[in-house]
Design goal:
By secondary structure, the chain is mainly β. It contains 1 helix and 30 strands.
């Protein structure tokens, strides 16, 4: 229990903070945003204005969210399982047991990878049917996870490093030191970016061999991280902001205000979306210049977020649900 308590304090993204929440204001602008390209290579090129359409029940204390091309997967921290939902209507297609305190999720093109913060391992499930294909040991209290096209990268918050595994068989190919309390991971096509919660910086590693290419300072307590095709976006939990860094050299391009205690971040092909834990809402920013386009109400203590090509899916940690916008 003490390990879990430490994990919650360090990571779960301050979900134990019991401050009063403030409802978000729903934007009322109309129209369609059209992007000429989608760096995420999802074959839908229109992003409609957000409006919370519905909410679906999942397991206890949902955290990470991932899209597999057809379905949404949700990691349920306190029920030690993951939920698979059909994107078209939110129908629950199955619940599958994993390790202790599942947190982060990533899709490798065929399988779902889940970090288990309480058992110091990752679970690999076949996306088609949820069958467990393997469980692989990593570092202490794994959190964020990303796929680089051939490998899985895992941030180990209590061992201050990241683990690289071969996606085909789960073999550990290396462990690489980063900053203090690494929590989020993203891949930019050549490099892996890791947010270090306690050292308030971001580490860039070369994906081919794990060489550290740089450490960059953004805002305090960085947590979530996403790539927009050219730049890296980082949520700063303690300053109610997000920082945009140029992926090529780590230069800070801007810092933009969002809601209170931002955690999760996702790119929809044209815009950046941020989950705000303490205001129970999401902020939408235009990726090209950081302009705030709206704030949208979701459930209690939103954490992970994923884009399915048409909609945003948000895990509401204190509502045991996901919102579809």
């Amino acid at each position: 229990m003490s390990k879990f308590t430490r994990a919650v304090v360090l990571t779960v993204l301050a979900l134990s903070i019991l401050s009063a929440s403030v409802p978000g204001q729903v934007a009322s602008t109309d129209g369609v945003t059209i992007s000429a390209k989608n760096p995420l290579q999802i074959a839908i090129l229109h992003w409609y204005r957000a409006n919370e359409t519905t909410t679906f029940s999942v397991g206890s204390t949902p955290q990470g969210v991932a899209f597999d091309g057809d379905h949404i997967w949700v990691a349920n921290l306190n029920s030690n399982n993951v939920t698979k939902l059909r994107t078209s209507d939110g129908m629950n297609l199955g619940t599958f047991g994993v390790g202790a305190f599942p947190t982060g999720m990533a899709f490798d093109g065929a399988n779902i990878w889940v970090t288990n913060a309480g058992s110091n391992d990752v679970t690999k499930l076949r996306a088609s049917d949820g069958k467990v294909l393997g469980t692989f040991s990593v570092g202490s209290t794994p959190q964020g996870v990303a796929f680089d096209g051939a490998h899985i990268w895992v941030a180990n918050i209590n061992s201050n490093n990241v683990t690289k595994l071969r996606a085909s068989d789960g073999k550990v190919l290396g462990t690489f030191g980063v900053g203090q309390a690494p929590i989020g991971v993203a891949f930019d096509g050549a490099s892996v970016w890791v947010t270090n919660l306690n050292s308030s910086d971001v580490t860039k590693l070369r994906a081919s061999d794990g060489t550290v290419l740089g450490t960059f300072v953004g805002g305090p307590n960085p947590s979530g991280v996403a790539f927009d095709g050219a730049n890296i976006w980082v949520t700063n939990f303690s300053s109610n902001s997000v920082t945009e860094l140029r992926a090529s050299d780590g230069k800070v391009l801007g810092t933009f205000g969002v809601g209170q205690s931002p955690i999760g971040v996702a790119f929809d092909g044209a815009n950046i979306w941020v989950t705000n834990v303490d205001t129970n809402n999401m902020t939408k920013l235009r990726a090209s210049d950081g302009t705030k386009l709206g704030t949208f109400r979701v459930g209690l203590r939103p954490s992970g977020v994923a884009f399915d090509g048409a909609n945003l899916w948000v895990a509401n940690s204190f509502s045991d649900s996901v919102s579809k916008l």
